[in-house]
Amino acid sequence: MKNIAQDRLIIYLLLFGLLPLILVYGDYISKKELQLTLRYELDTGCTTTISRNKKELHNRLVKSVFKKSSEKDPLYVHKQIESIDLLSEEIADIQKIVGCGFHPEEDGLRKRLTSLTNGENTLSFTENPEKRYATFHETLLTMNHPVEADLADIRKILSRVEGITIADEKAIDSRPHLIINDFRIEKKKGPLNEVYSLKLSLIKREYVK
Asked: Which of 6, 17, 24, 145 has its Cα between 20 and 30 A from that of 30?
């Protein structure tokens, strides 16, 4: 019994001796977690601030570029986008085929040619009522109906909407601030090549002086 009591005493003494170490370790873990939390909050705050500053700088640059509205063509959409001749290569190919005489698909090709040249497959936008804000005005432009286009047409449309050079399509300086609001394409099989059904809406933004 005496030996058992001594063993327990030794165990209690060891535990009592380890208690300060356990307390120190617990305090270290608590401070470490606090440091990690503070570091995370600091990193998050810095990232948010940098992102907000970048966004503000971008908005200022965009505004400075487009604020000189006198240099922007108010009829740009009509002149540079609605005037694009869609599927011009396919039209030329069909005209060449039907002009060579009999073709087993001649009736279908002639109907296709008529649908592409009678004005139905033309880009046409309707302007919705203008919305006025403190520093700018916005107008939503919606397409009156979907159109069929090939990749060359889509590159030209995007180049003129975004104001960037794409392949052989050069940016046009008279472009106002246009924002793509909705852009939907669906691949279709045409009589000669693959084409795309396109539905597009734009936002035209004008900055107040």
From this structure: 17
75 & 53 share domain = no
Instruction: Name residue 134's amino acid.
Output: A
57 & 133 share domain: no
Query: What is the domain range of residue 16?
Result: 1-66
Q: What DSSP character marks residue 166?
A: B
Q: Is this structure's pTM higher than 0.70?
A: no
Report the distance separating Cα 149 and Cα 145, nearest Å. 13
Residues 6+ apart with CB under 8 A from 140: 127, 128, 131, 181, 201, 202, 203
Structure confidence at residue 168 (pLDDT): 85
**CA-CA-CA-CA torsion for 84, 173, 141, 147, nearest 10 degrees?**
20
Write out the H or E segment, with its range, that includes residue 138.
strand 136-143
Q: What is the CA radius of gyration of the chain?
A: 34
Structure tokens at 208: 């107040």
The structural domain count of the chain equals: 2
